[in-house]
Amino acid sequence: MPGTAIYTDLSGYYDLMCADIDYRAQSHCVHRLHKLFGNGGNRHLDLACGTGPHVRHFLDAGYQSSGLDINQPMLDRAAVRCPEAEFSRQDMCGFTVAQPADLITCFLYSIHYSAEIARLQACIASVRGALATGGLFCFNAVDKHTIDNASFVAHEANHPDGLFSFSSGWHYAGAGEQQLLKLRIERTTAGQSQTWHDEHRMVAVSFAELSKLLQPYFGVHVLEHDYEKILPWNGTSGNAIFACVKL
């Protein structure tokens, strides 16, 4: 999970960038999945936790929650949001824990920040080592074969520092193990605009490839990318939730 300068430089606006995300619905869905597939324990670890919004929801649901991230400014904000949680600056592709976790999460497609297959394998190995028997690893992913390079999502948000416009989209060249996450942020204040552009190298995998990497270590459930309903993946949609039980 290499450091990304835009997340460090704009860490104060990260929550604004994610203002359209329903953290409560995502956290509640995974809580339900843990009840269905997990071991019943309450030790939770959030990979690439950012400023800690998911950790906050798990704490409020009664979990003993913790988080890790590679960006220290994000962790500083997470510690303010969740003073009762433990946070550590670690790479999700090579981390350790003091006690095994019962539930490990990785939201917002952050699993792709592993950037290449070898590091994705290392991430999976680290998760397996950190999970208790019967523990659940839950994350969402995008299938490289379904990416529309012309598609993007965007939203605006007001802030005392100005009007912010955010847009992001996936780009896959059609071959290889890397895709790009393209980000654009524009801040307008008193008629003056400032724009940031960034491209993050992300690992590109199909769901078949991802399942093959997981299956030696986990019982793998692939579900529709719907945080309101728990449904099996339909086999064609390009986004899915993976619920993986440690064997």
Automatic annotation (TrEMBL):
Pfam families assigned: Methyltransf_25
Domain Methyltransferase: 45-135
GO MF annotation, one: methyltransferase activity
Alphabetically ordered keywords of this record: Methyltransferase, Transferase
InterPro entries, per the entry: Methyltransf_25 (IPR041698), SAM-dependent_MTases_sf (IPR029063)
Keyword Ligase: no
Protein name as it appears in the record: Methyltransferase domain-containing protein
Taxonomic source organism: Stutzerimonas xanthomarina
